[in-house]
């Protein structure tokens, strides 16, 4: 089932907030994006490394839906692919509506398993003041709603390029909703 497309791919060899757009990236099974600072079996996010550097890396790949960029533009924010730190920008897939364990086939070979939601921090407001309120809010029951994309691990490696098809495979029910990772 073809659910969407990759619109951009990005990476950064250092821990920068924004990642550089690339013509293609290579996903490495069990590790993440080749040449990206978050590549590895254990956690690479600096605040998490400080807590426990032996934690498994559930944040190997960061994906954001291009529809969020569209919404942000409508609210007066100019945000391009990669600028919020994502490795893969998608269109046509409700990333935030996926359950934990959903598989995304990106292009011919690469498969990413969705592990959870990105937990955006104040760095987003450093990038553009007021942006954090656009990507984190409260739902009808007062629950925290995170909209800054999803995180995943690489199950099968391969090249990923803009224009690649995205196929979604849902896990067997019952589905677990995404939580922050």
Please tell me about this protein's structure:
Residues 20-169 form the MOSC domain. It comes from Streptosporangium brasiliense. This is MOSC domain-containing protein YiiM. With 181 residues, this protein is α+β, with helices and mostly antiparallel strands. The protein has one domain (2-169): PK beta-barrel domain-like (M1 Pyruvate Kinase, Domain 3). Helix content is 14%, strand content 34%. The protein has four helices and 13 strands. A seven-stranded mixed β-barrel has the order 1-6-5-11-8-7-13. The protein has a three-stranded antiparallel beta sheet with strand order 4-3-12, with no helix packed on it. Strands 9-10 form a two-stranded antiparallel sheet. The longest helix has 9 residues, at 66-74. It is globular and about 35 Å long.
What's the CATH architecture? Answer: Beta Barrel
Low-confidence stretches: none
Question: Biggest sheet, in brief?
Answer: 7 strands, mixed, barrel
The CATH homologous superfamily name equals PK beta-barrel domain-like
Pfam family, one: MOSC
Protein name: MOSC domain-containing protein YiiM
InterPro entries: MoCF_Sase_C, MOSC_domain, Pyrv_Knase-like_insert_dom_sf
């Amino acid at each position: 089932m073809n659910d969407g497309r990759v619109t951009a791919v990005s990476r950064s060899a250092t821990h920068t907030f924004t990642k550089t757009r690339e013509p293609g990236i290579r996903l490495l099974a069990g590790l993440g994006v080749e040449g990206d600072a978050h590549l590895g079996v254990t956690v690479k996010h600096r605040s998490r490394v400080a807590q426990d550097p032996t934690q498994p890396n559930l944040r190997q790949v960061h994906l954001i839906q291009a529809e969020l960029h569209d919404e942000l533009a409508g609210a007066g924010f100019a945000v391009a692919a990669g600028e919020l730190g994502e490795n893969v920008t998608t269109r046509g897939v409700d990333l935030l509506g996926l359950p934990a364990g959903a598989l995304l086939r990106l292009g011919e070979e690469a498969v990413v398993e969705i592990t959870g939601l990105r937990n955006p921090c104040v760095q987003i407001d450093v990038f553009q003041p007021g942006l954090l309120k656009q990507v984190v809010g409260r739902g009808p029951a007062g629950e925290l709603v995170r909209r800054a994309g999803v995180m995943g691990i690489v199950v099968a490696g391969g090249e990923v390029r803009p224009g690649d098809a995205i196929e979604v495979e849902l896990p067997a029910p019952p589905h677990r909703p995404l939580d922050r990772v």
